[in-house]
Amino acid sequence: MSTKTPLHVLVIGAGFGGLTLAHGLRKAGVSVAVYEKQRSRTDGLYGYRVGIDPTGNRALKDCLPPKLFETFLATCARTPLYFNVLTEKKRRTAAVPLRGDADLINSERSVSRQTLRQVLLTGLEDVTHFDKELTHYEQRADGTVVAYFADGSSATGDVLVAADGAHSAVRKQYLPHAKLKPAGITTIGAKVPMSPEALRLLPVTSQKGLSLVFAPKGFMCIWHVMEFRWDERGGIKDSAAGNDAELLRAWPGMLFDNTRDYISWGIWASDDKFPKDVLKLRGQALIDLVLKLTPNWHPDFRKLFAMADPTTPFPLHIATSEPVPAWQTTNVTLLGDAIHTMTPGQGVGANTSLRDAMLLTRALTSVHNGSRDLLGAIGEYEAEMIPYGFARVKDSLAENGTNGNDPLHKPVLGRAVLAGSRAYFKAVDKIPSVQRKFLDDLYTYRGAE
Protein backbone atom coordinates (compact mmCIF):
# COMPACT_ATOMS: atom_id res chain seq x y z
CA MET A 1 0.00 0.00 0.00
CA SER A 2 1.34 3.43 -0.92
CA THR A 3 1.99 5.93 1.84
CA LYS A 4 0.98 9.54 1.42
CA THR A 5 3.83 12.04 1.26
CA PRO A 6 2.81 15.41 2.71
CA LEU A 7 3.96 18.26 0.48
CA HIS A 8 3.95 22.02 0.82
CA VAL A 9 4.29 23.82 -2.51
CA LEU A 10 5.46 27.42 -2.90
CA VAL A 11 4.11 29.08 -6.04
CA ILE A 12 5.90 32.29 -7.03
CA GLY A 13 3.52 34.43 -9.06
CA ALA A 14 -0.28 34.84 -9.07
CA GLY A 15 -0.83 34.75 -12.81
CA PHE A 16 -3.13 32.38 -14.64
CA GLY A 17 -0.78 29.40 -14.47
CA GLY A 18 0.22 29.82 -10.84
CA LEU A 19 -3.34 30.29 -9.59
CA THR A 20 -4.66 27.38 -11.65
CA LEU A 21 -1.92 25.18 -10.21
CA ALA A 22 -2.84 26.32 -6.70
CA HIS A 23 -6.49 25.40 -7.29
CA GLY A 24 -5.54 22.01 -8.67
CA LEU A 25 -3.31 21.25 -5.70
CA ARG A 26 -5.90 22.35 -3.13
CA LYS A 27 -8.52 20.27 -4.90
CA ALA A 28 -6.21 17.27 -4.46
CA GLY A 29 -5.50 18.03 -0.81
CA VAL A 30 -1.95 19.31 -1.35
CA SER A 31 -0.78 22.22 0.81
CA VAL A 32 0.08 25.28 -1.28
CA ALA A 33 0.86 28.98 -0.87
CA VAL A 34 1.08 31.64 -3.58
CA TYR A 35 3.38 34.67 -3.41
CA GLU A 36 2.76 37.67 -5.67
CA LYS A 37 4.92 40.80 -5.94
CA GLN A 38 2.00 43.12 -6.74
CA ARG A 39 0.49 44.85 -3.74
CA SER A 40 -3.14 43.78 -4.12
CA ARG A 41 -5.47 41.65 -6.24
CA THR A 42 -6.49 44.67 -8.32
CA ASP A 43 -2.98 45.89 -9.20
CA GLY A 44 -1.50 45.47 -12.63
CA LEU A 45 -2.56 45.70 -16.27
CA TYR A 46 -5.10 42.90 -16.56
CA GLY A 47 -7.99 44.54 -18.40
CA TYR A 48 -7.51 43.12 -21.88
CA ARG A 49 -8.83 40.10 -23.66
CA VAL A 50 -7.40 36.60 -23.54
CA GLY A 51 -8.70 33.74 -25.66
CA ILE A 52 -9.23 30.44 -23.89
CA ASP A 53 -9.06 27.51 -26.28
CA PRO A 54 -9.92 23.82 -25.76
CA THR A 55 -6.52 23.24 -24.12
CA GLY A 56 -7.23 26.01 -21.62
CA ASN A 57 -10.84 24.93 -21.04
CA ARG A 58 -9.66 21.40 -20.29
CA ALA A 59 -7.05 22.58 -17.80
CA LEU A 60 -9.45 24.90 -15.99
CA LYS A 61 -12.13 22.23 -15.74
CA ASP A 62 -9.56 19.76 -14.43
CA CYS A 63 -8.10 22.08 -11.78
CA LEU A 64 -10.90 24.35 -10.59
CA PRO A 65 -13.69 23.37 -8.18
CA PRO A 66 -16.80 22.58 -10.28
CA LYS A 67 -18.75 25.66 -9.20
CA LEU A 68 -15.80 27.95 -9.90
CA PHE A 69 -15.42 26.49 -13.39
CA GLU A 70 -19.09 27.28 -13.97
CA THR A 71 -18.41 30.81 -12.72
CA PHE A 72 -15.55 31.10 -15.20
CA LEU A 73 -17.95 30.17 -18.00
CA ALA A 74 -20.48 32.76 -16.77
CA THR A 75 -17.83 35.51 -16.74
CA CYS A 76 -16.71 34.92 -20.32
CA ALA A 77 -17.67 37.46 -22.95
CA ARG A 78 -20.12 36.59 -25.69
CA THR A 79 -18.55 33.84 -27.77
CA PRO A 80 -17.08 35.10 -31.07
CA LEU A 81 -19.23 33.93 -33.98
CA TYR A 82 -16.89 34.93 -36.81
CA PHE A 83 -13.19 35.05 -37.61
CA ASN A 84 -12.90 38.07 -39.89
CA VAL A 85 -10.05 39.22 -42.10
CA LEU A 86 -10.19 42.79 -43.39
CA THR A 87 -8.11 45.28 -45.31
CA GLU A 88 -7.17 48.62 -43.80
CA LYS A 89 -9.82 50.10 -46.12
CA LYS A 90 -12.47 48.05 -44.27
CA ARG A 91 -12.97 45.69 -47.20
CA ARG A 92 -13.86 42.10 -46.36
CA THR A 93 -11.32 39.42 -47.16
CA ALA A 94 -12.97 36.66 -45.13
CA ALA A 95 -15.73 36.15 -42.58
CA VAL A 96 -15.50 32.57 -41.34
CA PRO A 97 -18.27 31.26 -39.02
CA LEU A 98 -16.75 29.78 -35.87
CA ARG A 99 -18.06 26.86 -33.88
CA GLY A 100 -20.37 27.69 -30.99
CA ASP A 101 -19.75 27.18 -27.29
CA ALA A 102 -22.23 24.37 -26.64
CA ASP A 103 -19.30 22.01 -26.01
CA LEU A 104 -17.78 23.09 -22.69
CA ILE A 105 -14.29 21.98 -23.74
CA ASN A 106 -13.96 21.99 -27.53
CA SER A 107 -14.78 25.65 -28.04
CA GLU A 108 -13.14 29.09 -28.03
CA ARG A 109 -13.93 31.60 -25.30
CA SER A 110 -13.09 35.25 -24.75
CA VAL A 111 -12.50 36.58 -21.26
CA SER A 112 -11.12 39.76 -19.76
CA ARG A 113 -7.71 39.22 -18.18
CA GLN A 114 -8.81 41.14 -15.10
CA THR A 115 -11.96 39.04 -14.82
CA LEU A 116 -10.15 35.73 -15.20
CA ARG A 117 -7.65 36.77 -12.58
CA GLN A 118 -10.46 37.56 -10.14
CA VAL A 119 -12.09 34.20 -10.89
CA LEU A 120 -8.83 32.38 -10.21
CA LEU A 121 -8.20 34.28 -6.96
CA THR A 122 -11.63 33.23 -5.69
CA GLY A 123 -11.21 30.58 -3.00
CA LEU A 124 -7.46 31.17 -2.69
CA GLU A 125 -7.65 34.33 -0.60
CA ASP A 126 -6.26 32.57 2.48
CA VAL A 127 -3.18 31.20 0.70
CA THR A 128 -2.33 34.09 -1.64
CA HIS A 129 0.16 36.60 -0.25
CA PHE A 130 0.58 39.96 -1.98
CA ASP A 131 3.48 42.42 -1.85
CA LYS A 132 5.92 39.51 -1.84
CA GLU A 133 8.70 40.18 -4.33
CA LEU A 134 11.12 37.26 -4.52
CA THR A 135 14.78 38.21 -4.17
CA HIS A 136 16.24 34.69 -4.20
CA TYR A 137 15.67 31.15 -3.00
CA GLU A 138 17.81 28.54 -1.26
CA GLN A 139 17.71 24.76 -1.68
CA ARG A 140 18.70 23.12 1.59
CA ALA A 141 20.34 19.81 2.36
CA ASP A 142 17.23 18.54 4.14
CA GLY A 143 15.29 18.64 0.85
CA THR A 144 13.38 21.84 1.55
CA VAL A 145 13.51 25.09 -0.39
CA VAL A 146 13.29 28.56 1.14
CA ALA A 147 11.98 31.61 -0.72
CA TYR A 148 13.22 35.02 0.44
CA PHE A 149 11.27 38.21 -0.21
CA ALA A 150 12.15 41.90 -0.45
CA ASP A 151 10.25 42.73 2.75
CA GLY A 152 12.60 40.50 4.76
CA SER A 153 10.19 37.59 5.14
CA SER A 154 10.70 34.04 3.93
CA ALA A 155 8.71 30.87 3.28
CA THR A 156 9.76 27.23 3.37
CA GLY A 157 8.35 24.40 1.31
CA ASP A 158 9.12 21.10 -0.36
CA VAL A 159 8.72 22.41 -3.92
CA LEU A 160 9.12 25.86 -5.45
CA VAL A 161 7.33 26.63 -8.72
CA ALA A 162 8.28 29.60 -10.89
CA ALA A 163 5.05 31.08 -12.20
CA ASP A 164 6.34 34.65 -12.19
CA GLY A 165 6.18 35.44 -15.87
CA ALA A 166 8.55 36.37 -18.65
CA HIS A 167 10.98 38.23 -16.38
CA SER A 168 10.98 35.46 -13.79
CA ALA A 169 13.24 36.03 -10.80
CA VAL A 170 13.27 32.29 -10.19
CA ARG A 171 14.44 31.51 -13.73
CA LYS A 172 17.23 34.09 -13.51
CA GLN A 173 18.67 32.19 -10.55
CA TYR A 174 17.77 28.62 -11.55
CA LEU A 175 18.46 28.74 -15.29
CA PRO A 176 20.61 31.85 -15.82
CA HIS A 177 21.39 30.72 -19.37
CA ALA A 178 17.68 30.79 -20.33
CA LYS A 179 17.23 34.10 -22.10
CA LEU A 180 14.58 36.20 -23.79
CA LYS A 181 15.28 37.77 -27.16
CA PRO A 182 13.44 40.58 -28.94
CA ALA A 183 11.00 39.40 -31.60
CA GLY A 184 11.47 42.67 -33.47
CA ILE A 185 7.81 43.65 -33.08
CA THR A 186 6.21 46.60 -31.31
CA THR A 187 2.53 46.67 -30.44
CA ILE A 188 0.13 49.25 -29.02
CA GLY A 189 -3.18 48.16 -27.50
CA ALA A 190 -6.16 50.03 -26.05
CA LYS A 191 -9.85 49.72 -25.17
CA VAL A 192 -12.85 51.61 -26.50
CA PRO A 193 -15.85 51.77 -24.14
CA MET A 194 -18.80 49.99 -25.74
CA SER A 195 -21.46 52.19 -27.31
CA PRO A 196 -23.85 51.86 -30.27
CA GLU A 197 -21.79 54.51 -32.06
CA ALA A 198 -18.53 52.61 -31.61
CA LEU A 199 -20.04 49.26 -32.56
CA ARG A 200 -21.50 50.64 -35.80
CA LEU A 201 -18.00 51.55 -36.98
CA LEU A 202 -17.21 47.85 -37.43
CA PRO A 203 -18.64 45.59 -40.16
CA VAL A 204 -21.63 43.48 -39.06
CA THR A 205 -19.68 40.23 -38.79
CA SER A 206 -16.91 42.04 -36.88
CA GLN A 207 -19.51 43.19 -34.36
CA LYS A 208 -20.07 39.50 -33.59
CA GLY A 209 -16.53 38.20 -33.69
CA LEU A 210 -12.84 38.95 -33.82
CA SER A 211 -11.23 40.69 -36.76
CA LEU A 212 -7.70 40.70 -38.16
CA VAL A 213 -6.52 43.51 -40.44
CA PHE A 214 -3.68 43.00 -42.93
CA ALA A 215 -2.32 46.38 -44.06
CA PRO A 216 0.61 47.68 -46.13
CA LYS A 217 4.12 48.11 -44.66
CA GLY A 218 3.64 45.08 -42.43
CA PHE A 219 1.05 46.68 -40.16
CA MET A 220 -1.53 44.39 -38.64
CA CYS A 221 -4.42 45.09 -36.29
CA ILE A 222 -6.86 43.00 -34.30
CA TRP A 223 -10.31 43.97 -33.00
CA HIS A 224 -12.19 42.14 -30.25
CA VAL A 225 -15.78 42.93 -29.29
CA MET A 226 -16.24 42.04 -25.62
CA GLU A 227 -19.79 41.92 -24.27
CA PHE A 228 -20.45 40.49 -20.80
CA ARG A 229 -23.45 39.35 -18.77
CA TRP A 230 -23.34 42.45 -16.55
CA ASP A 231 -23.99 46.10 -17.35
CA GLU A 232 -22.00 49.30 -16.84
CA ARG A 233 -23.13 49.46 -13.19
CA GLY A 234 -22.13 45.88 -12.50
CA GLY A 235 -25.73 44.68 -12.41
CA ILE A 236 -26.70 41.43 -14.10
CA LYS A 237 -28.23 41.96 -17.54
CA ASP A 238 -31.74 40.70 -18.19
CA SER A 239 -30.35 38.58 -21.03
CA ALA A 240 -28.19 36.51 -18.64
CA ALA A 241 -29.49 32.96 -18.26
CA GLY A 242 -30.82 31.88 -14.87
CA ASN A 243 -27.88 29.78 -13.69
CA ASP A 244 -25.32 32.29 -15.00
CA ALA A 245 -27.13 35.12 -13.22
CA GLU A 246 -27.16 33.18 -9.94
CA LEU A 247 -23.46 32.36 -10.23
CA LEU A 248 -22.53 35.98 -10.93
CA ARG A 249 -24.64 37.32 -8.06
CA ALA A 250 -22.94 34.88 -5.70
CA TRP A 251 -19.42 35.51 -7.02
CA PRO A 252 -17.38 37.70 -4.63
CA GLY A 253 -14.85 38.51 -7.34
CA MET A 254 -17.31 40.94 -8.94
CA LEU A 255 -16.46 43.39 -6.15
CA PHE A 256 -12.88 43.61 -7.47
CA ASP A 257 -13.57 43.59 -11.21
CA ASN A 258 -14.25 46.85 -13.04
CA THR A 259 -14.48 45.21 -16.47
CA ARG A 260 -17.36 46.48 -18.61
CA ASP A 261 -18.32 45.93 -22.26
CA TYR A 262 -15.62 47.21 -24.61
CA ILE A 263 -13.99 46.94 -28.01
CA SER A 264 -10.26 46.31 -27.83
CA TRP A 265 -7.77 47.01 -30.54
CA GLY A 266 -4.13 46.14 -30.94
CA ILE A 267 -1.88 47.30 -33.77
CA TRP A 268 1.63 46.03 -34.46
CA ALA A 269 4.48 46.13 -36.95
CA SER A 270 8.25 45.77 -36.97
CA ASP A 271 10.16 47.89 -34.45
CA ASP A 272 11.55 50.21 -37.13
CA LYS A 273 8.04 51.53 -37.90
CA PHE A 274 7.76 53.06 -34.42
CA PRO A 275 9.68 55.86 -32.70
CA LYS A 276 12.56 54.68 -30.55
CA ASP A 277 11.00 56.17 -27.42
CA VAL A 278 7.60 54.51 -27.91
CA LEU A 279 7.76 52.70 -24.56
CA LYS A 280 7.94 56.08 -22.80
CA LEU A 281 4.68 57.28 -24.34
CA ARG A 282 1.41 57.06 -22.44
CA GLY A 283 -2.27 57.86 -22.87
CA GLN A 284 -3.33 60.26 -25.60
CA ALA A 285 0.22 60.37 -27.00
CA LEU A 286 -0.11 56.70 -27.97
CA ILE A 287 -3.50 57.25 -29.58
CA ASP A 288 -2.06 60.17 -31.54
CA LEU A 289 0.85 57.99 -32.65
CA VAL A 290 -1.48 55.27 -33.94
CA LEU A 291 -3.43 57.88 -35.90
CA LYS A 292 -0.17 59.20 -37.34
CA LEU A 293 0.84 55.68 -38.41
CA THR A 294 -2.51 54.98 -40.13
CA PRO A 295 -3.29 58.07 -42.25
CA ASN A 296 -4.74 56.07 -45.15
CA TRP A 297 -6.85 53.65 -43.12
CA HIS A 298 -10.63 53.74 -43.37
CA PRO A 299 -12.12 56.68 -41.44
CA ASP A 300 -14.21 54.30 -39.31
CA PHE A 301 -11.11 52.46 -38.11
CA ARG A 302 -9.40 55.76 -37.35
CA LYS A 303 -12.47 56.89 -35.40
CA LEU A 304 -12.23 53.73 -33.29
CA PHE A 305 -8.55 54.37 -32.62
CA ALA A 306 -9.44 57.92 -31.55
CA MET A 307 -12.32 56.75 -29.31
CA ALA A 308 -10.03 54.70 -27.06
CA ASP A 309 -10.19 55.49 -23.37
CA PRO A 310 -6.94 57.50 -22.96
CA THR A 311 -6.16 55.72 -19.69
CA THR A 312 -5.93 52.34 -21.46
CA PRO A 313 -3.30 52.49 -24.26
CA PHE A 314 -0.05 50.66 -23.60
CA PRO A 315 3.04 49.98 -25.76
CA LEU A 316 5.04 46.78 -25.72
CA HIS A 317 8.13 45.35 -27.37
CA ILE A 318 7.38 41.67 -28.02
CA ALA A 319 9.92 39.16 -26.68
CA THR A 320 10.29 35.42 -27.08
CA SER A 321 12.18 32.71 -25.20
CA GLU A 322 15.27 31.08 -26.61
CA PRO A 323 14.94 27.28 -26.30
CA VAL A 324 17.06 25.65 -23.62
CA PRO A 325 17.99 21.97 -23.36
CA ALA A 326 16.57 19.86 -20.56
CA TRP A 327 18.14 20.51 -17.16
CA GLN A 328 18.74 18.29 -14.14
CA THR A 329 15.51 17.98 -12.20
CA THR A 330 15.34 19.32 -8.65
CA ASN A 331 12.58 20.50 -6.33
CA VAL A 332 12.44 23.81 -8.25
CA THR A 333 10.47 23.84 -11.49
CA LEU A 334 8.82 26.31 -13.85
CA LEU A 335 5.62 26.87 -15.81
CA GLY A 336 4.18 29.30 -18.33
CA ASP A 337 6.02 32.44 -19.41
CA ALA A 338 8.62 31.82 -16.72
CA ILE A 339 10.11 29.20 -19.05
CA HIS A 340 8.49 29.52 -22.51
CA THR A 341 7.51 33.11 -23.28
CA MET A 342 6.04 33.29 -26.77
CA THR A 343 4.82 35.93 -29.18
CA PRO A 344 1.03 36.34 -29.50
CA GLY A 345 1.07 34.98 -33.06
CA GLN A 346 -0.86 31.80 -32.27
CA GLY A 347 -2.77 33.08 -29.26
CA VAL A 348 -1.71 30.12 -27.14
CA GLY A 349 0.55 31.61 -24.46
CA ALA A 350 -2.01 31.65 -21.65
CA ASN A 351 -3.42 28.29 -22.71
CA THR A 352 0.01 26.68 -22.67
CA SER A 353 0.51 28.01 -19.15
CA LEU A 354 -2.81 26.46 -18.10
CA ARG A 355 -1.75 23.16 -19.66
CA ASP A 356 1.47 23.30 -17.65
CA ALA A 357 -0.54 23.89 -14.47
CA MET A 358 -2.76 20.88 -15.13
CA LEU A 359 0.17 18.55 -15.81
CA LEU A 360 2.17 19.77 -12.82
CA THR A 361 -0.90 19.37 -10.61
CA ARG A 362 -1.15 15.74 -11.67
CA ALA A 363 2.57 15.19 -11.09
CA LEU A 364 2.62 16.67 -7.59
CA THR A 365 -0.65 14.97 -6.67
CA SER A 366 0.93 11.61 -7.51
CA VAL A 367 3.71 12.42 -5.03
CA HIS A 368 1.21 13.47 -2.38
CA ASN A 369 -0.69 10.22 -2.89
CA GLY A 370 2.49 8.17 -2.53
CA SER A 371 2.50 6.73 -6.05
CA ARG A 372 5.57 8.66 -7.27
CA ASP A 373 8.77 10.06 -5.85
CA LEU A 374 9.13 13.84 -6.05
CA LEU A 375 12.02 14.17 -8.49
CA GLY A 376 10.63 11.44 -10.73
CA ALA A 377 7.26 13.18 -10.95
CA ILE A 378 8.73 16.63 -11.62
CA GLY A 379 11.11 15.10 -14.16
CA GLU A 380 8.21 13.55 -16.06
CA TYR A 381 6.38 16.88 -16.07
CA GLU A 382 9.43 18.68 -17.43
CA ALA A 383 10.08 15.98 -20.03
CA GLU A 384 6.59 16.62 -21.41
CA MET A 385 6.41 20.39 -20.89
CA ILE A 386 9.74 21.39 -22.41
CA PRO A 387 9.11 19.93 -25.91
CA TYR A 388 5.54 21.17 -26.34
CA GLY A 389 6.29 24.52 -24.69
CA PHE A 390 9.18 25.38 -26.97
CA ALA A 391 7.33 23.98 -29.98
CA ARG A 392 4.64 26.58 -29.26
CA VAL A 393 7.34 29.25 -28.96
CA LYS A 394 8.68 28.28 -32.40
CA ASP A 395 5.22 28.12 -33.99
CA SER A 396 4.24 31.50 -32.57
CA LEU A 397 7.40 33.18 -33.83
CA ALA A 398 6.81 31.73 -37.31
CA GLU A 399 3.23 33.01 -37.51
CA ASN A 400 2.67 35.59 -40.21
CA GLY A 401 3.56 39.08 -39.01
CA THR A 402 4.69 38.40 -35.43
CA ASN A 403 8.42 38.28 -36.17
CA GLY A 404 10.27 41.43 -37.16
CA ASN A 405 12.27 39.43 -39.70
CA ASP A 406 9.13 38.15 -41.42
CA PRO A 407 9.07 38.98 -45.15
CA LEU A 408 5.77 40.78 -44.52
CA HIS A 409 7.77 43.62 -42.96
CA LYS A 410 10.20 44.03 -45.89
CA PRO A 411 9.68 47.02 -48.21
CA VAL A 412 9.39 45.14 -51.53
CA LEU A 413 8.82 41.51 -50.60
CA GLY A 414 6.22 42.58 -48.08
CA ARG A 415 3.83 43.68 -50.82
CA ALA A 416 3.92 40.21 -52.36
CA VAL A 417 3.42 38.54 -48.98
CA LEU A 418 0.48 40.83 -48.23
CA ALA A 419 -1.13 39.97 -51.57
CA GLY A 420 -0.57 36.26 -50.93
CA SER A 421 -2.09 36.43 -47.46
CA ARG A 422 -5.16 38.20 -48.75
CA ALA A 423 -5.52 35.71 -51.61
CA TYR A 424 -5.35 32.80 -49.17
CA PHE A 425 -8.05 34.20 -46.91
CA LYS A 426 -10.25 34.99 -49.90
CA ALA A 427 -10.02 31.29 -50.73
CA VAL A 428 -10.88 30.43 -47.11
CA ASP A 429 -13.91 32.69 -47.43
CA LYS A 430 -15.19 31.36 -50.76
CA ILE A 431 -14.15 27.70 -51.07
CA PRO A 432 -15.90 25.32 -48.60
CA SER A 433 -13.15 22.69 -48.61
CA VAL A 434 -10.46 25.30 -47.90
CA GLN A 435 -12.60 26.79 -45.13
CA ARG A 436 -13.17 23.37 -43.53
CA LYS A 437 -9.44 22.65 -43.52
CA PHE A 438 -8.70 26.09 -42.05
CA LEU A 439 -11.16 25.50 -39.20
CA ASP A 440 -10.06 21.89 -38.61
CA ASP A 441 -6.42 22.97 -38.42
CA LEU A 442 -7.30 25.90 -36.15
CA TYR A 443 -9.27 23.88 -33.61
CA THR A 444 -6.96 20.86 -33.69
CA TYR A 445 -3.91 23.02 -33.01
CA ARG A 446 -5.71 24.73 -30.15
CA GLY A 447 -6.50 21.45 -28.43
CA ALA A 448 -9.91 20.34 -29.70
CA GLU A 449 -10.56 16.62 -29.64
From TrEMBL:
It comes from the Bacteria. It holds the Pfam family NAD_binding_8. GO terms for molecular function: FAD binding; monooxygenase activity. InterPro entries: FAD-bd, FAD/NAD-bd_sf. Residues 326-373 form the FAD-binding domain. Keywords: FAD, Flavoprotein, Monooxygenase, Oxidoreductase. The keyword Flavoprotein applies. PANTHER family: FAD-BINDING DOMAIN-CONTAINING PROTEIN, MONOOXYGENASE, FAD-BINDING. This is 2-polyprenyl-6-methoxyphenol hydroxylase-like FAD-dependent oxidoreductase. It comes from Kitasatospora kifunensis.
